[in-house]
Amino acid sequence: MSSGLRRFVGPQPAGPPVPGAAREKPRAAPGEACEMCAEPIGDGHSHVVNLDSRQILCTCRACYLLFTHQGAAGGRYRAVPDRYLHDPGFRLDDASWDALQIPVRVAFFFLNSDLGRVAGFYPSPAGATESLLPLEAWADVVAANPVMTDLAPDVEALLVQRAGEGFECFLVPIDACYELVGLVRMHWKGFDGGQEAWEAIDGFFDAVRERSRPVGKETGEP
């Protein structure tokens, strides 16, 4: 997990005292060891979402694979996929964007299975801020872009950015969205964010574009 992402999700809450706990090894910091089995992990580790606490856990590959099947562990945990897609034909205009009530140029949307609806968030210096997403306005966006709505609940999101005179949309892992949130929190200064923040945001989207395949070509085959 990146340092920016750790800043957003915060530390795990402490559990109740356990007899004999003083003899156990100190728990490694998130990002240094699997948060499920404590095995050492590297920077390129995987993530699993705890659907009860809505936390993203850093995991080793073995623990990650346990939760790639829907319903594993009673459905409490879900592995975050690693696919990145973009839709070159994504359609959104200024009026539709305004109807979504997003006050900034970047937002992400995912299906919250607990709520049974799509939730919209945007990065801010205070962290991920939820928008009071008008579902009718979102339904209009979906109707115009049905090809990008095949996303896994809770673990994938649609990341939308106003780019020049139009908009671009990517289907990304949910941890990528919180990496962006961490970058904004880390670099944003003043009212307009400052040059450092925008360089970080632009660099993030450059990396997303590089990793993304056109929708319909998820396998990378010609």
How would you describe this structure in keywords?
single chain; 222 residues; alpha+beta; seven-stranded mixed sheet; three-stranded antiparallel sheet; 6 helices; disordered N terminus
Helices and strands in order:
Elements: H1 3-9, E1 46-50, E2 55-59, H2 61-66, E3 77-79, E4 85-86, H3 94-99, E5 106-112, E6 117-124, E7 127-131, H4 135-144, E8 156-163, E9 166-173, H5 174-187, H6 194-211, E10 213-214
Parallel strand pairs: 4-10
Antiparallel strand pairs: 1-2, 1-3, 4-9, 5-6, 5-8, 6-7, 8-9
Helix pairs in contact: 1-5, 5-6
- CA-to-CA gap between the ends? 32 Å
Number of helices: 6
Q: Roughly how many Å is the radius of gyration?
A: 18 Å
Main sheet attributes: strand count, strand direction, barrel closure: 7 strands, mixed
Q: Structural class, from secondary structure content? A: alpha+beta
Q: Beta-strand percentage?
A: 15-25%
Describe the global form: globular
User: What fraction, in percent, of the residue positions are helical?
Assistant: 25-40%
Report the oligomer: single chain
Order of helices and strands: HEEHEEHEEEHEEHHE
Annotation, overall tally of beta strands: 10
Q: pLDDT under 50 segments (min length 5)?
A: 1-26
- In the sheet with the most strands, the strands line up as 7-6-5-8-9-4-10
